[in-house]
Amino acid sequence: MIDKRLRVVLAEDSVVLRDGMVELLGARGCEVVAATGTAPELLAAVAAHRPDVAVVDIRMPPTHTDEGIRAAVDIRARTPEVGILVFSQHVETVWASRLLADGTAGVGYLLKERVARTSEFVDALRRVADGGTALDPAVVTQLLRGGQRHKVDALTPREYEVLELMAQGHSNRSIATLFAVSERAVEKHVAAVFAKFGLRATDTDNRRVKAVLTYLAESGS
């Protein structure tokens, strides 16, 4: 049962698909506050309406290459409180990595042909709007570029719990509060996860994102 009317901005260049999604989301208790067909219109709609979540296709006019996901990255930088659900037929790894650079909380990436039920899509939409994550395993696999699986098997139970909470968008401070331990203790667990996953610090350090992506890939989330 929908207990909160979700406010959505929809960006889809196919008029038929866009109109169908507006009708579908309305029937599922969501309010589509704007439905757009170009990236500039998407940016303007998000700025004007400040929705709970924006649904974004990757390829939009005029070049039909990566306008949509570039706009999504821009939205995340300008209004991080707005959830982003990329909904596309394609995986664009470069810009997807940039979209996830500050963490996976409030971000989703689903492939159109792999969503079997309307309820799955709406559930993912609400999860992203609530600050959660909804990443198709096929997307995660491509982002990881075929990295080794089952790395989580090397983690201790507490390290696994910490990683699971990281995947839910919790900060070290938040995890420390949940476990009633010091933030320093959590930092040690996070460092252990990085070490066991072979994630070394770099100039553009995004080890936290890579650790979460590995967790999602191996858990099938």
Automatic annotation (TrEMBL):
Cross-referenced Gene3D superfamilies: 3.40.50.2300
Domain HTH luxR-type span(s) in chain numbering: 148-219
Domain Response regulatory, first and last residues per copy: 7-127
Positions of transmembrane segments: none
UniProt-listed GO biological process terms: phosphorelay signal transduction system; regulation of DNA-templated transcription
MF terms (GO), sorted A to Z: DNA binding
InterPro entries per UniProt: CheY-like_superfamily, NreC/VraR/RcsB-like_REC, Sig_transdc_resp-reg_receiver, Tscrpt_reg_LuxR_C, WalR-like
UniProt modified residues of type 4-aspartylphosphate: 57
Protein known as: DNA-binding response regulator
Alphabetic keyword roster: DNA-binding, Phosphoprotein, Transcription, Transcription regulation
